[in-house]
Specification:
CATH superfamily of the largest domain: Intergrase catalytic core
Strand order of the largest sheet: 1-2-3
Distance between the termini: 51 Å
Largest sheet: 3 strands, antiparallel
Structural class: mainly alpha
Strand content: 5-15%
Number of strands: 8
Radius of gyration: 23 Å
CATH architecture of the largest domain: Orthogonal Bundle
Amino acid sequence: MSDNSFPESICIYLPFLDPFEPRSFGLRHVSAYVEQRRKQDASDATINRELEHPTAFRLAVDSELLPKAPKIRMLEEDNVRNGFIEQSDYERLRAKLPEYLVPLLVVGYHLGCRLGELLKLRWEQVDFNASQIWLEKRQTKAKVARILPIYGDMRLVLLASLAERDSRFPSCSLVFHRNGNRIVDFRKAWTRACVAAGLPWLRFHDLRRSAVRNMDRAGVPRATIRRIIGHETDAMFDRYRIVDQRDIHEAGRIAEKYLRGEPTDALANENGGVTNFVTNSSSGDQNNEC
């Protein structure tokens, strides 16, 4: 059995399980794995993330090491974080951060990339003419290359960072750095800035949820958001798409106008995005203006 045929997380703990033939791998082995990880005090959320490897199971099936991929039932989670920030929070935090962390915040807030992906980013992957950033598959958690848009505050901030790099640290190829050196640990500086901005609970990973939520509100199709963020499944997208009281209030406002026969400005579509919607009061027909 090749370790590359199964999710890496499961391979690590296979020695704890009873011996088995690769083709016999099934739910009983997954259950044994879950039991072992719980004994090691792993949270259900952590175990779920370790089991979310559909690509690895497909590769095992394609290699004829498994007759079929097991259908894994995710565990109930009670410790999923739901933090996110609004535009005003982002602007306050940006004003409090040390200068070298501002570009990291801006790109993280706009794109929702994982911190590890951003810290590996090099200038050769940034294309200002095409307004795109390329992530190579070796840099991503899912080992899938991604193309990301440059928009909003990103362009000016990145151009300023590039100009500073050219003048002060010409030998540094990293987009995000501290005085030309790789950023290793910025937790203390981040925490101080978050406290000063009135966001003591905020973690960098919460920017990921914020980006998903902002793009979803803006009407970006779910499939496109998934490609930008790097989510492999709809389940992962749903965990990150946070609906708050403002979303609920807006939905009620739009639905009320629709029921009154008044023109409505937006209606959520099946992808979780927003579609322009106009009511024709004379005929009762509705026409989408996509």
